[in-house]
Amino acid sequence: MAKRSMLSRIPLPSRVEHTLDSALDRALSVQRPAVLAYLDRMRKKNPKMTPGQVQEQLERHYRTAVMGVGGASGAAAAMPGVGTAASLASGAAEITAFVSASAMYVLALAELHSVPTGDPQLRRALVLSVLVGEGGAAVIAGETGGDPHWAKVLGRSTSKDKVSGINSRLGRMLVGRFGARQGALLFGRALPLGIGAGVGAAGNAVLAKGVIKSARRAFGPPPANFPARVVDATPA
């Protein structure tokens, strides 16, 4: 408990906050065909997989990916001639990679659960709320009638103006909660003698566990059968 309290008091560097904002914008720019191709490649490798197995595979791929980029970023500090400033720059790039992997994971789940993602504001709300965690779930639940699996409700019946307001609140929460944890990890990754690699991998494993837990709550159990592809439409 004391260790968590100590980390929470580490201020979030301004450039980390900027990196977090730009990383989210870049991650959400991924086109739907790329998400569908990712799912198709996964199913092609094992055509007999059920939707539940695909969801488990998405979780494993996501966890492995973010642990890998966390360890690689932390390992930079162990390289001879790499100073703290360079290590922090590597950590900022790792934040971008983490957010990008998280967005791909969430949007792939949305496709698996037939949640439409054509509206950019809806895409942002889905990814932000999962990244923020319990606080994000509470914000969404308050706007969707308290449905325990709110992702489908959000995509089906929430007005564009309401989603925009939700995103404003979630954006502030992302910087205050997720951003503070990433800021603390960024300094941990910069530790020398290879310690940073362990901090990066372990820290991202903890963050990934929280994201997966939040996503399971948002989307609910996997569907019994693979749904028909949702056709994107221009939001009204």
Overview of the molecule:
With about 240 residues, the chain is mainly alpha-helical. The chain has one domain (about 15-220). Helix content is about 75%, strand content about 0%. The chain has ten helices and no strands. The longest helix has 30 residues, at about 160-190. About 40% of the residues are buried. Residues about 1-10, about 70-90 and about 190-200 have low confidence and may be disordered.
Strand content: under 5%
Give the SSE order as H and E letters: HHHHHHHHHH
Largest sheet: none
Mean pLDDT: 73
How many strand segments? 0
Overall helicity: over 70%
Specify the structural class. mainly alpha
Low-confidence stretches: 1-11, 72-90, 190-199
Question: What is the tally of helical segments?
Answer: 10
Radius of gyration: 18 Å
Euclidean distance between termini CA atoms:
48 Å
Number of domains: 1
Inertia-based shape: globular
Q: In summary, what is this structure?
A:
With 236 residues, the chain is an all-alpha fold. It contains 10 helices and no strands.
